[in-house]
Amino acid sequence: MTAATHSTLFPQVPETADAVLDGLDPEQREVARALSGPVCVLAGAGTGKTRAITHRIAYGVRAGVLQPASVLAVTFTNRAAGEMRGRLRQLGAGGVQARTFHSAALRQLQFFWPKAVGGDMPRLLERKIQLVADAAARCRIRLDRNELRDVTGEIEWAKVTQTVPADYPAAVAKSVRDAPRDPAEISQIYALYEQLKRDRSVIDFEDVLLLTVGILQDRHDIAEQIRRQYQHFVVDEYQDVSPLQQRLLDLWLGDRDNLCVVGDASQTIYSFTGATPDHLLDFRNRHPNATVVKLVRDYRSTPQVVHLANGLLNQARGRAAEHRLELISQRDPGPEPAYTEYADEPAEAEGTARRIRDLVAAGVPAGEIAVLYRINAQSEVYEQALADAGVPYQLRGAERFFERQEVREAGIALRGAARAGGNDSLLDDADDLPSQVRAVLSTKGWTSKPPAGSGAVRDRWESLAALVRLAEDFARAKSGATLSDLVAELDERAAAQHAPTVQGVTLASLHAAKGLEWDAVFLVGLTEGMMPITYAKTDEQVEEERRLLYVGVTRARLHLSLSWALSRAPGGRASRRPTRFLKGLRPGSGSLGSLAAAGAGGIERGIAGGRRKPRGPVLCRVCGATLTEAGAMKLMRCEDCPSDMDEALYERLRDWRAEQARELAQPAYCVFTDKTLMAIAERVPTTDGELSSISGVGVRKLDRFGADVLAICAGGDGGTGDDEH
């Protein structure tokens, strides 16, 4: 074999089962070795979760514990499933099935349909929107193309949450969901859509799951056949499962518990599609004997990026926040995140483009840079700025601005109005260019106020609103500009951005960026109303917006830039405010005060004014190993490393603590935990600074108990403590 064969493109298959474990950190190795019973892996961003679970499967196969054909690994995208299959092949476990939920269910449905139902399986609809349109027409409800997309999305949500048409209005009200139409109308369309599918003998993608669930519930012989085939299950991105997917998983499992789930509640950003982290958060309640492993060593991002990510979650509230993981960067320090305030949106886009051009000139590949925003309509100004700066770019998860259907339609309408000139009655009351554009685009769906909620109707409005703003800016820049001048400007912009780009800066929404990473990430447009988005009304919706920003931050490996503009257009009133999510984190935004600690990788957290020094890996002071558990980090050593604790001092501290607890009528641990007392007895502090550096001794406890503790460490017996309560 030549040396080239050993490149990363052709890695060698490990020779033995134990060799599969080489290179895994202690927690990843624990995941790999947990081959039986329920296993829950709580894996933070960048902690190597795919590596852990693929090595787990491969180790089980290579050790002879798992038969390849008996393992089913499911995830949420074809890309993720393909990546998993590729890694398993490289590890010598190529026979394992790695599929999406839909792919696995469709395969089973096609195989068992003749036996369970008989005859040919109904045809699978690739796109349901035409059938929804037919159902709406029969209900005599007029829907434009974007309303059709939104109603279709509502039907999909209803089906994955196992909501039948009659129950849809009540389910919407209970979920505090913004329906794109009257819920009674959607319920009517949904019911007729289901009837039309039956009449035409077709099924949709949600039916694939529903029908598979139905067969497994009704036909115990088929369920048992599948359970004999698949005896071990692995579910990736478990925080994103819907109630319907969980029901299918339960039926696959039966009364067994050989299930490994992997997820991070702090990355739940798709609740609008029916995804819920409840199944992940309730896993230990359903499986009390589960092995739970937390992956908190972040191999992706620098300590500076990780510090900001942890700070965002420190402010989070709600159930998912209670289970947040505090990441510990394993990388060398890098540059601090850059926070930039711009006067207006064009200045923000131009400034971002300049910084990107400088990074590319410094050697960062354009393909390793991303600009991430909240909604796709924000892309246009960045497309233009990058084109003007000569920086190639590519869009992910969205069409280029000028290729969007609504933008093309708007261009045709504006061109027609420009040709008609004074003969177009639409323009009779429009005395300047912006008002002319508003009049024309009002026929295409633009209104002075945005539609409620999210969805295709809102996306269309945002695109048209971007054209209205462009017209306003153009009129200010070119006095006396006509509609024909604007049309020519739009044509020039479209032509400049049609050039094909193979390797370029990625422009993407935050949702589309999930699962990806870059060397440099620019998070733009971070103002109130955009982050969180205006239609995030409830506390739960606002917390999902915070998680969305967290996902954006954790996409960055090295360079991270966060920016916002105080006004929309040059010369506009500086009325915007930067997102509330950065308060206490960005320079000059004040302090959050003391933040409550939460269990995250066993690490205590707290900020007492100002910004903390970024936390890098915490190392054992005895053996140098990286520490991740709370107790070990208090002691600054591994639990099993030799202790140099002063036993007599420890006992005096315990006696003093008991006396304090009695006086305060509180449990002893409310004074100091055993681990904190052990840390004090090991380090024997002599000053306030040395004492406060010990984890568990905050400002409040230092004020109340510090003098006593230092006196005991100096050989005294301490006093009675501060009498304040």
Describe this structure as you would to a colleague:
By secondary structure, this protein is of the alpha/beta class. The protein contains 28 helices and 18 strands. Strands 3-2-6-7-1-8 form a 6-stranded parallel sheet, sandwiched between helices. The chain has a 6-stranded parallel sheet with strand order 11-16-15-12-14-13, sandwiched between helices. α4 links the parallel β2 (71-75) and β3. The chain starts with 16 loop residues before the first helix and ends in a 12-residue tail after the last helix.
Instruction: Determine the number of helices (DSSP H or I, runs of at least 4 residues).
Output: 28
| Poorly predicted parts | 1-10, 497-502, 592-616, 720-725
Question: How many distinct beta strands?
Answer: 18
Derived from helix and strand composition plus strand pairing, the structural class reads: alpha/beta
Rg calculated over all Cα atoms: 29 Å
Q: Describe the largest sheet.
A: 6 strands, parallel
Q: Which shape, going by the Cα principal axes?
A: globular
* Relative helix content: 40-55%
Provide the spatial order of strands within the biggest beta sheet: 3-2-6-7-1-8
Distance between the termini: 74 Å
User: Average pLDDT across residues?
Assistant: 83
- Taken as a percent bin, the fraction of beta residues is 5-15%
Helix-strand blueprint:
Blueprint: H1 17-20, H2 26-33, E1 39-43, H3 49-62, E2 71-75, H4 78-90, E3 97-100, H5 101-116, E4 123-124, H6 129-138, H7 145-160, H8 168-175, H9 183-200, E5 202-203, H10 205-218, H11 220-229, E6 232-235, H12 243-253, E7 259-263, H13 278-281, H14 283-286, E8 291-295, E9 297-298, H15 303-314, H16 319-322, E10 328-329, E11 338-344, H17 345-361, E12 369-373, H18 379-388, E13 393-396, H19 405-420, H20 433-441, H21 456-477, H22 483-496, E14 505-509, E15 518-523, H23 539-553, E16 556-567, E17 618-619, E18 626-627, H24 630-635, H25 647-664, H26 674-683, H27 688-692, H28 699-713
